[in-house]
Protein backbone atom coordinates (compact mmCIF):
# COMPACT_ATOMS: atom_id res chain seq x y z
CA UNK A 1 0.00 0.00 0.00
CA UNK A 2 2.85 2.35 0.82
CA UNK A 3 3.95 2.18 -2.84
CA UNK A 4 0.47 2.23 -4.37
CA UNK A 5 -1.17 5.20 -2.66
CA UNK A 6 1.23 7.90 -3.90
CA UNK A 7 0.73 6.76 -7.51
CA UNK A 8 -2.86 7.93 -7.67
CA UNK A 9 -2.81 11.50 -6.39
CA UNK A 10 -5.73 13.11 -4.67
CA UNK A 11 -8.57 11.02 -6.19
CA UNK A 12 -11.24 10.01 -3.68
CA UNK A 13 -14.42 7.96 -3.51
CA UNK A 14 -17.66 9.91 -3.79
CA UNK A 15 -21.19 8.72 -3.08
CA UNK A 16 -23.72 9.30 -5.86
CA UNK A 17 -27.50 9.31 -5.80
CA UNK A 18 -29.92 7.91 -3.28
CA UNK A 19 -29.94 4.33 -2.02
CA UNK A 20 -32.85 3.11 -4.15
CA UNK A 21 -31.45 4.56 -7.38
CA UNK A 22 -27.98 3.23 -6.66
CA UNK A 23 -29.28 -0.31 -6.07
CA UNK A 24 -31.61 -0.15 -9.08
CA UNK A 25 -28.71 0.90 -11.27
CA UNK A 26 -26.59 -1.98 -9.96
CA UNK A 27 -29.35 -4.46 -10.90
CA UNK A 28 -29.75 -2.97 -14.38
CA UNK A 29 -25.98 -3.22 -14.98
CA UNK A 30 -25.52 -6.81 -13.89
CA UNK A 31 -23.81 -9.06 -16.45
CA UNK A 32 -23.88 -6.58 -19.35
CA UNK A 33 -21.34 -4.13 -20.72
CA UNK A 34 -21.08 -0.63 -19.30
CA UNK A 35 -22.32 0.82 -22.61
CA UNK A 36 -25.33 -1.51 -22.78
CA UNK A 37 -26.11 -0.87 -19.11
CA UNK A 38 -26.14 2.89 -19.68
CA UNK A 39 -28.49 2.54 -22.64
CA UNK A 40 -30.92 0.28 -20.74
CA UNK A 41 -30.70 2.55 -17.68
CA UNK A 42 -31.68 5.61 -19.71
CA UNK A 43 -34.67 3.78 -21.25
CA UNK A 44 -35.69 2.45 -17.82
CA UNK A 45 -35.52 5.92 -16.25
CA UNK A 46 -37.59 7.34 -19.11
CA UNK A 47 -40.21 4.59 -18.67
CA UNK A 48 -40.41 5.23 -14.95
CA UNK A 49 -40.89 8.93 -15.47
CA UNK A 50 -37.39 10.30 -15.25
CA UNK A 51 -34.90 10.90 -12.52
CA UNK A 52 -33.21 14.12 -13.51
CA UNK A 53 -30.65 16.01 -11.49
CA UNK A 54 -33.25 17.17 -8.96
CA UNK A 55 -35.55 14.14 -9.08
CA UNK A 56 -35.00 10.79 -7.46
CA UNK A 57 -36.18 7.51 -8.87
CA UNK A 58 -39.21 6.57 -6.80
CA UNK A 59 -40.06 2.97 -5.80
CA UNK A 60 -43.79 3.66 -6.31
CA UNK A 61 -43.10 4.70 -9.92
CA UNK A 62 -41.33 1.40 -10.57
CA UNK A 63 -44.19 -0.53 -8.96
CA UNK A 64 -46.67 1.30 -11.21
CA UNK A 65 -45.12 -0.37 -14.28
CA UNK A 66 -45.84 -3.95 -15.22
CA UNK A 67 -43.23 -6.42 -16.42
CA UNK A 68 -44.00 -5.87 -20.15
CA UNK A 69 -43.41 -2.12 -19.74
CA UNK A 70 -40.09 -2.80 -18.00
CA UNK A 71 -39.15 -5.33 -20.69
CA UNK A 72 -39.89 -2.71 -23.36
CA UNK A 73 -37.17 -0.58 -21.75
CA UNK A 74 -34.68 -3.34 -22.51
CA UNK A 75 -34.72 -5.22 -19.21
CA UNK A 76 -34.76 -8.99 -19.07
CA UNK A 77 -37.78 -10.59 -17.39
CA UNK A 78 -35.57 -11.52 -14.44
CA UNK A 79 -34.20 -7.97 -13.99
CA UNK A 80 -37.74 -6.59 -14.24
CA UNK A 81 -38.73 -8.93 -11.39
CA UNK A 82 -35.66 -7.92 -9.38
CA UNK A 83 -36.44 -4.21 -9.79
CA UNK A 84 -40.01 -4.86 -8.68
CA UNK A 85 -38.78 -6.69 -5.59
CA UNK A 86 -36.34 -3.86 -4.83
CA UNK A 87 -39.13 -1.29 -5.18
CA UNK A 88 -41.44 -3.33 -2.91
CA UNK A 89 -38.76 -3.60 -0.22
CA UNK A 90 -38.26 0.16 -0.25
CA UNK A 91 -41.95 1.01 -0.59
CA UNK A 92 -42.97 -1.34 2.24
CA UNK A 93 -40.22 -0.13 4.56
CA UNK A 94 -38.46 -3.50 4.62
CA UNK A 95 -35.14 -1.72 4.27
CA UNK A 96 -34.18 0.69 7.01
CA UNK A 97 -32.33 3.42 5.12
CA UNK A 98 -32.53 5.93 7.96
CA UNK A 99 -31.07 3.40 10.40
CA UNK A 100 -28.15 2.28 8.23
CA UNK A 101 -25.72 4.81 9.68
CA UNK A 102 -26.07 3.12 13.07
CA UNK A 103 -26.07 -0.45 11.75
CA UNK A 104 -22.98 -2.58 11.25
CA UNK A 105 -21.95 -3.73 7.78
CA UNK A 106 -23.15 -7.33 8.17
CA UNK A 107 -26.62 -6.22 9.29
CA UNK A 108 -26.95 -4.04 6.19
CA UNK A 109 -25.67 -6.85 3.96
CA UNK A 110 -28.26 -9.20 5.47
CA UNK A 111 -30.99 -6.67 4.78
CA UNK A 112 -29.90 -6.13 1.19
CA UNK A 113 -29.36 -9.77 0.19
CA UNK A 114 -32.98 -10.46 1.19
CA UNK A 115 -33.88 -8.53 -1.98
CA UNK A 116 -33.97 -10.68 -5.12
CA UNK A 117 -31.15 -9.76 -7.48
CA UNK A 118 -28.82 -8.45 -4.79
CA UNK A 119 -26.06 -10.75 -3.65
CA UNK A 120 -23.27 -10.23 -1.20
CA UNK A 121 -20.94 -8.67 -3.81
CA UNK A 122 -23.55 -6.06 -4.80
CA UNK A 123 -24.23 -5.32 -1.12
CA UNK A 124 -20.51 -4.87 -0.46
CA UNK A 125 -20.15 -2.53 -3.46
CA UNK A 126 -23.10 -0.56 -2.05
CA UNK A 127 -21.37 -0.32 1.33
CA UNK A 128 -18.17 0.94 -0.31
CA UNK A 129 -19.55 3.28 -2.96
CA UNK A 130 -22.82 4.52 -1.48
CA UNK A 131 -22.51 4.33 2.30
CA UNK A 132 -18.78 5.01 2.12
CA UNK A 133 -17.99 2.33 4.69
CA UNK A 134 -14.21 2.28 5.23
CA UNK A 135 -13.61 -1.33 6.23
CA UNK A 136 -15.20 -3.59 3.59
CA UNK A 137 -13.10 -6.36 2.04
CA UNK A 138 -15.09 -7.86 -0.89
CA UNK A 139 -13.46 -11.28 -1.09
CA UNK A 140 -15.72 -12.32 -3.99
CA UNK A 141 -14.41 -9.48 -6.15
CA UNK A 142 -12.14 -10.77 -8.91
CA UNK A 143 -10.47 -7.37 -9.30
CA UNK A 144 -9.48 -7.34 -5.65
CA UNK A 145 -8.01 -10.84 -5.89
CA UNK A 146 -6.16 -9.95 -9.09
CA UNK A 147 -4.85 -6.72 -7.52
CA UNK A 148 -3.55 -8.65 -4.53
CA UNK A 149 -2.01 -11.26 -6.84
CA UNK A 150 -0.20 -8.65 -8.95
CA UNK A 151 0.91 -6.39 -6.10
CA UNK A 152 1.69 -8.91 -3.35
CA UNK A 153 2.19 -12.35 -4.93
CA UNK A 154 4.17 -11.58 -8.13
CA UNK A 155 1.13 -12.47 -10.25
CA UNK A 156 0.60 -15.90 -8.69
CA UNK A 157 -3.04 -16.84 -7.98
CA UNK A 158 -4.26 -15.88 -4.52
CA UNK A 159 -6.91 -17.65 -2.46
CA UNK A 160 -9.70 -15.91 -0.59
CA UNK A 161 -8.07 -17.08 2.67
CA UNK A 162 -4.76 -15.45 1.69
CA UNK A 163 -6.61 -12.27 0.69
CA UNK A 164 -8.50 -12.24 4.00
CA UNK A 165 -5.25 -12.68 5.96
CA UNK A 166 -3.50 -9.90 4.04
CA UNK A 167 -6.57 -7.68 4.38
CA UNK A 168 -6.46 -7.89 8.16
CA UNK A 169 -3.42 -5.62 8.04
CA UNK A 170 -5.44 -2.94 6.22
CA UNK A 171 -8.17 -2.73 8.87
CA UNK A 172 -9.94 -0.45 9.60
CA UNK A 173 -9.48 0.88 6.04
CA UNK A 174 -9.91 -2.23 3.91
CA UNK A 175 -12.29 -0.41 1.49
CA UNK A 176 -9.56 2.13 0.82
CA UNK A 177 -6.98 -0.60 0.21
CA UNK A 178 -9.41 -2.37 -2.12
CA UNK A 179 -9.96 0.83 -4.10
CA UNK A 180 -6.21 1.36 -4.53
CA UNK A 181 -5.75 -2.24 -5.64
CA UNK A 182 -8.49 -1.76 -8.26
CA UNK A 183 -6.77 1.42 -9.41
CA UNK A 184 -3.47 -0.44 -9.74
CA UNK A 185 -5.16 -2.58 -12.42
CA UNK A 186 -7.09 0.26 -14.06
CA UNK A 187 -5.95 3.82 -13.32
CA UNK A 188 -9.42 5.25 -14.02
CA UNK A 189 -11.30 5.59 -10.75
CA UNK A 190 -13.90 2.94 -10.05
CA UNK A 191 -17.25 4.67 -9.72
CA UNK A 192 -20.74 3.28 -9.03
From TrEMBL:
UniProtKB keywords: DNA damage, DNA repair
This enzyme's EC code(s): 3.2.2.21
Q: Ranges for the HhH-GPD domain? A: 28-186
Query: What start and end residues bound the annotated signal peptide?
Result: none
List, in alphabetical order, the Gene Ontology terms for molecular function in this entry. Answer: alkylated DNA binding; DNA-3-methyladenine glycosylase activity; DNA-7-methylguanine glycosylase activity
Its top-level enzyme class, in one word, is hydrolase
Gene Ontology annotations for the cellular component aspect, listed alphabetically: protein-DNA complex
Question: Which CDD domains does the UniProt record give?
Answer: ENDO3c (cd00056)
Q: Which GO terms describe its biological process?
A: base-excision repair, AP site formation; DNA alkylation repair
Q: Which InterPro entries match?
A: Alkylbase_DNA_Glycosylase/TA, DNA_glycosylase, HhH-GPD_domain
- Its domain of life? Bacteria
Q: List the catalysed reactions.
A: Hydrolysis of alkylated DNA, releasing 3-methyladenine, 3-methylguanine, 7-methylguanine and 7-methyladenine
Alphabetical list of PANTHER family matching this protein: DNA-3-METHYLADENINE GLYCOSYLASE
Q: Which family does it belong to?
A: Belongs to the alkylbase DNA glycosidase AlkA family.
> What protein am I looking at?
DNA-3-methyladenine glycosylase II
* Taxonomic source organism: Ideonella aquatica
Record lineage: Bacteria, Pseudomonadati, Pseudomonadota, Betaproteobacteria, Burkholderiales
Amino acid sequence: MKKLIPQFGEARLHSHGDAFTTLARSIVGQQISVKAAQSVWERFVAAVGGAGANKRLQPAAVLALDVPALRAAGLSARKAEYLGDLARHFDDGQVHVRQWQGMDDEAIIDELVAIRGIGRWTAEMFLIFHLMRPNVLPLDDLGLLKGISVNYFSGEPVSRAEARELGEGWAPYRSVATWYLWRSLDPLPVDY
